[in-house]
Amino acid sequence: MIEVVFAKLEQFTPLTAEDKDALRAAVTTIEAFAPRQDIVSEGARPDGVHLLLEGWAGRYKTLEDGARHTMAFLIPGDLCDVQITLLDVMDHSIGALSSCRVATFGRETLATLMGENERLGAALMWATLVDEAILREWLVNLGGRKADRRLAHLLCEMLLRTQAVGQSANGKFEVPLTQEQLADSLGMSPVHVNRTLQDLRARQLIRWEGKHVRIEDVEQLMAFAGFDPTYLHQVRSRTDRCDD
Amino acid sequence: MIEVVFAKLEQFTPLTAEDKDALRAAVTTIEAFAPRQDIVSEGARPDGVHLLLEGWAGRYKTLEDGARHTMAFLIPGDLCDVQITLLDVMDHSIGALSSCRVATFGRETLATLMGENERLGAALMWATLVDEAILREWLVNLGGRKADRRLAHLLCEMLLRTQAVGQSANGKFEVPLTQEQLADSLGMSPVHVNRTLQDLRARQLIRWEGKHVRIEDVEQLMAFAGFDPTYLHQVRSRTDRCDD
DNA sequence: CGCACCGTTGAAAATGGTCAACTAGGGTGG
DNA sequence: CCACCCTAGTTGACCATTTTCAACGGTGCG
């Protein structure tokens, strides 16, 4: 199950069997989380580094008025908090959006591992830099694009990211989110997300079946969204793979 | 002139005279940039790490339609690209917003320095983590707050950040930006920035004199904006200082 | 069966964008 | 020194997008 993180990291550089064993050995616990449950809470000083194995989670803050804003979607293979824990307190929370399984690494274990194993260290560093690049793109997406392009852009990103860890096939992937959770990340109301999704469906850009999205013509959706995949820094290109 | 970065880093931890000398010695060049000139361009692979000494710069991307979105304001003492250059290509640009002076560190010089000097390494790491925290807060600001609160929130941040490097006194600081540049960072039109500024002035929350902003009652502005300074992770509190 | 959650719809209202014009100030060339 | 021009800030009127409120239908589950 931890294999998913290998797929993630190997977008950047191939890992040896020893690298993988070392990572496997660094895992201290594996826990399950229910939807809406916090994996790491604001104000806490977590003891370990969390790796998402199954399900989706979100990085979020709660505003004065009680509204929630999601700053990142975390999918299987994503590390939640490699660096952040170096600061005194978490300035945001990480919460499960669907049912999740989460592995925890000991903080020091991982730190020494990154120090000793240069390839692994670089791969983990690359992963956090990509997360930051995604954050920047989200800011641009929110600040500069209208609702329909914005949603389309998010879906393009989801396609490429799920593809990279073998969670999509033939342009079809699972989005285990409610429209409200999507709304919280896009800075729009749930109602408008609903209408915008309908609009994208009407334009034949996407197909939505239950919790699954299918994108027939990726080129067309990317053109509509103004999507440029450079920011994902997926060095080694990857073809679709089936879920295992 | 490089002293400004000491003020910045000492928000996190005090530096010794040797630390400061080491940093000073790592500087290879100091350059001037005119407004609208790029300091680092998208697509480039910069050779050094840039430190802003004077003036303001912005991290930005250009959208499909030619619009520009600013993802961060950089003020004196800020490092532009400590980590980003580890990736293959810059996925965004850094441009001067006012007249700037910029110091450049040799990439390797700084890397070995961070490796050898633990205190300096930690301070620089802290600085980049804070930059990331600011990015997250901007995302929330953009996604979750209406125009007036959003602008007010940005001004609160600017006050605290300029204060921290001795660039503000008695709630008054310079904002060397046009309303259009503000608009590019807030995801709103220049016209609406103008009207929103007038609104804040009418509410007596801010005073705007030329390129200078004065905030009489910080508490009130923060309350209006829903501003919580935690995300700036200013460990060591600092009082106002005069420009030198 | 009934409750809770989610997606969906309609209509009214608010927020912010666009367009166009006008002003004020600073610099430049005649 | 003045005319000119460019930029930045400002204003008004109109329009587009998005939010809000309220209601309804389906579905899964205790």
Structure summarized in a few sentences:
The structure is a homodimer of 244-residue chains. By secondary structure, the first copy, chain A, is of the alpha+beta class. The first copy, chain A, has helices spanning 3-9, 17-26, 107-116, 118-144, 147-164, 179-186, 190-202, 218-225; strands at 27-33, 38-40, 48-54, 57-62, 68-74, 93-96, 100-106, 168-169, 172-174, 207-209, 212-214.
What does this structure look like?
- By secondary structure, chain A is of the alpha+beta class.
- Helix content of chain A is 41%, strand content 21%.
- Chain A has helices spanning 3-9, 17-26, 107-116, 118-144, 147-164, 179-186, 190-202, 218-225; strands at 27-33, 38-40, 48-54, 57-62, 68-74, 93-96, 100-106, 168-169, 172-174, 207-209, 212-214.
- Chain A has a 4-stranded antiparallel β-sheet. In chain A, strands 8-9-11-10 form a 4-stranded antiparallel β-sheet. The first copy, chain A, has a 3-stranded antiparallel β-sheet with strand order 1-7-3.
- In chain A, a hairpin with a 2-residue loop joins strand 8 (168-169) and strand 9 (172-174).
- In chain A, helix 6 (179-186) packs across helix 7.
- Mean pLDDT of chain A is 93; it is low at 240-244.
- Chain A binds chain B through residues 59, 61, 63-65, 67, 69, 71, 83-84, 86-89, 91-92, 125-126, 129-130, 132-133, 135-140, 142-145, 185-187, 226, 230-231, 233, 235, and chain B through 59, 61, 63-65, 67, 69, 71, 83-84, 86-89, 91-92, 125-126, 129-130, 132-133, 135-140, 142-145, 185-187, 226, 230-231, 233, 235.
